[in-house]
Amino acid sequence: MRLRTLRDLEVEGKRVLTRVDYNVPLQDGRVADDTRIRATLPTIAALRKRGARLILCSHLGRPKGQVREDLRLAPVADRLSALLDIDVRYVRDITGDEARTMASQLGPGEVGLLENLRFDPREEQNDPEFARELASLAECYVNDAFGAAHRAHASTAGVAALLPSAAGLLMEREIHALTRVLEADEHPFVLILGGAKISDKIGVIENLSRRADTLLLGGGMANTFLKALGYEVGRSLAEEDRLDEARRLLSLAEQRGIEVVLPSDAVVAPELGAVEQARTVPIDGVGPDDAIFDIGPDTVARFSKVIGDAALVVWNGPMGVFEVPAFREGTRGIGQAVAACPGFTVVGGGDSAAAVEELGLADRIDHVSTGGGATLEFLEGKELPGVQLLMEENG
Ligand code: ADP
Ligand code: MG
């Protein structure tokens, strides 16, 4: 199966409905972080250069099928106009008269933006009539919203079946990098997992442990594994109801011949706010009144050595509560090791991507995935509806 890309689509002079992910944080009526907008610029530039008439569409937040003044896309249109240095034609309408007029008046290379798709309840219902209304605005369809590809909505799934369609450049890059992971035959393959809970990551562990050689576990979820193995974890975040699950995953890894490495030391404190009491202890030295908030320096050194020898690294989940500077060093250390690794490196997950951006390491990582839930579902081996429809058999 092959992904249809912009090269497969005749867009010259055509009206191209382009689904993007402009679900950006807003503050005081302005875009607070335009990373997701900038990520779509290559696709927009490529389409404009070919004389396409772009009709961009996105969701923003969770308006649940109602018009919400604070979730209009006007601030996005302003930011996009500034980035492109053109006047983006934003309409406060999705498929009505205003939208149709805008679409019909766009000239080659011009860009329009529809209102927040989720103001219409039919978007999330993948309503066929709504998909037809969207499709009628354009002659072809490009999906560049990888972050929304795990949802079968009208703008991600319904419309793709109605028009000649293809993946945008951002979508294409995501699929290629993540497919390389799923089909990995590069060894050593090191999988690094952290973050809050194992319950969010069970599918990823089950699927990627088929191919990985080493599994490095940190973050809050390592606490559940440690507890399952009989270690004292005190007041740490740990999932009491997942201890059996943790033991099952450990024996699955053993059956598959994967080495699982847990933290050997930790940064602990009585509570998150008590940073002045933070101290590093060996992993068997955690007291009943301690909570683990980061991996310690010995763990960073041991993990870094494994990462340095890897041909392929996949990292999801911060190693500690990186939002608090006192508990950021573990995530920084692992981030630096991943950045320095000569193998192919992929970071996925909303918080993980934010962490490597904040630490200034993103440029040195081969692929920082823009999808949160979509990335995890892809790595679990699930078929994403938004992606499936862009695939072509016998291509
Ligand atoms: P991602 O979004 O990259 O998939 P997660 O959402 O699973 O990552 O996890 C990120 C969260 O995990 C962060 O908010 C971080 O503070 C939290 N976290 C990491 N380690 C710990 C820990 N030891 N105790 C509590 N929370 C933790
Ligand atoms: Mg998260």
TrEMBL record:
Binding site for ATP: 201, 323, 349-352
The name this protein goes by in its record: Phosphoglycerate kinase
Reactions mediated catalytically: (2R)-3-phosphoglycerate + ATP = (2R)-3-phospho-glyceroyl phosphate + ADP
SUPFAM superfamilies for this protein: Phosphoglycerate kinase (SSF53748)
Protein localization: Cytoplasm
Species whose genome carries this gene: Thermorudis peleae
Pathway as given in its UniProt record: Carbohydrate degradation; glycolysis; pyruvate from D-glyceraldehyde 3-phosphate: step 2/5
Cited Pfam families: PGK
Positions of substrate binding: 21-23, 36, 59-62, 118, 151
Subcellular location, principal: cytoplasm
Protein family (similarity comment): Belongs to the phosphoglycerate kinase family.
CDD domains linked to this entry: Phosphoglycerate_kinase
Molecular function terms from GO: ADP binding; ATP binding; phosphoglycerate kinase activity
Alphabetic keyword roster: ATP-binding, Cytoplasm, Glycolysis, Kinase, Nucleotide-binding, Transferase
Keyword Cell division: no
Gene Ontology cellular-component annotations: cytosol
Subunit structure and binding partners: Monomer.
Keyword field contains Transferase: yes
GO biological process, alphabetically ordered: gluconeogenesis; glycolytic process
Enzyme class: transferase
EC numbers for this chain: 2.7.2.3
Residue positions binding (2R)-3-phosphoglycerate: 36, 118, 151
InterPro entries membership: Phosphoglycerate_kinase, Phosphoglycerate_kinase_N, Phosphoglycerate_kinase_sf
